[in-house]
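Risk register update: the risk that structure generation would not scale has been downgraded. Supporting records follow, first protein first.
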Amino acid sequence: MTASFTLNKTLDSMVVYTSKAIANKAAQMPDVMNLSFGEPEFGPPAFLQSLIEQQGLSWEVFLHSVKGYEQPKGSLDLRQAIADWYHLRYGLSVDPEREVMVTHGGVEAINLAIQCTTQEHQGVIISHPSYMLYERAVVALNRKPVALNRPLGDAEYHSALKAQQQDAELQQAGAIIVNSPENPSGYMLNAKDWDAVSEFTQQHGIWLIHDEVYDVMAYSEQHQPALKYPNVRKNTIIINSFSKKFGLPGLRIGWMIANEQVINMAAKLHDYFYLGVNKQYEQIALLILREPRMAAWLNEVIVKLQARMERACSELNPSLGYQWTRQPRGAMFLFPDVSGLYAQLPTKWKDDNRTVGECVAEYLLHEKRVAVVPGHVYGENSINHIRMVLCTTDDVFDQALHRLTH
């Protein structure tokens, strides 16, 4: 009798995540304007071309990069540049040798942070709404997602924590993941939120993982890393990357900032799994962070995103069925409530077995030829929402908005 061979049942049960599945479907429909997937159209700026060709893609750099493994924490030069980023932008002092680590994008940094700060089967707090891959990562790592349900209005953390502060699952969690500026809603934590998160995590011994990959994408207010709040310095892990702000998702360079104990453990785990990041990509990342013209270019990107956001919020108005219960304050997404649009749909697009967001997304894809993501994938309290990206080409954004409003 031949023995059966099984695969990981948890991973086998996971399907392709929704935004990628919709993006893949839209790619097979050439006339569809794709607002479903967060691959920034912008970046890198043209002024980097000669610099990268000469100092990042030269034969000498290539040979240096491929003839040896990188150390587990990454290049010290790049870690110093990352520390300088926080000093120049936020006035924060970070030790590049002990408190910074380079990773394979922000996703690896999040996975390392979860593994280093929690035990198997322990809870990890994930707010609703939140980035859809957090929960998948937690489950794949054999931890338990614990939902923090935030109010639909401004989606404030301090009111949600106050309302659920006696929840035993929240109190017993090992870590909380906070995304600010946030995918999908564009929410940014305010001072009251950070005070509440600080008090709750300190009281219950919970690690704070602050995913700030959209850090520069703040509109009318200044983004602040969690490290700016002294009370949470010792239990905070900062996650960041080059993917979003610099428009370089394929570079796969991210970083983690934490205390020395966390960084040493994360570097050890990184060494077990990956050995080291791509040294040539580190060199390109270093050139980008060291280039003084990048600050002005980043500001231009934010101005463009904010203008698109304001235009969309104005044109996608209540008469068309869009409500802005979560006004975007940062990041590169739109997250309207489309209950009103659902009410206006022809009967054939309404399905009692599907959420409002799913029905509207299906209608928009086939009738308007615009691909969006239904809100239920970001949390149970977002079933009446859809997510749209702001980071497409001008042509795609303009055509999509025209189709949605006509």
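Supporting record for the second protein:
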Amino acid sequence: MICFLLSLFSQIFQSGWTGVNERTFIAIKPDAVQRKLVGQIIQRFEKKGFKLVALKLVQASEDLLLDHYWDLRNKTFFSELIHYMRSGPVVAMVWQGLNVVKTARVILGETNPADSLPGTIRGDYCVDVGKNVIHGSDSVQSAQKEIFLWFKHGELQLWEHHSTPWIY
């Protein structure tokens, strides 16, 4: 166990969590997967210049979702949210880049699609706050927690993107 934790912390510190090495967790929710929006959503992050370091299609377990949405457990919509997130596959991703957490939140749009501007993912693709297409970490600390909830050690790829000097 100690070797695993040391290796995990080594991976975190090797890749860093600030500057161009900042990472965020993005989940394409079941409604977007069913509507075949996955490619269009991924393309937005790629076009922005962010680097994809992990991606998988998963049917999220109830335990995973309870951990992920723990801070919302006292909200009236909590059980509906868990049911919705278990209704189909989720595309879980980790993106890396300068200010990726903050910038990804802008790309996503407001939680309530009625408040989202055209050009954002939610502004372009969703109508109902209960099926708002996508989740993105709201802070670097949340991103760290969410990444390690959804991805096992070794699933995050450390690689150099050829266009990094052209972006930064």
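Residues 70 and 78 are 9 Å apart (CA to CA). On this basis the risk owner (M.S.) recommends closing the item.
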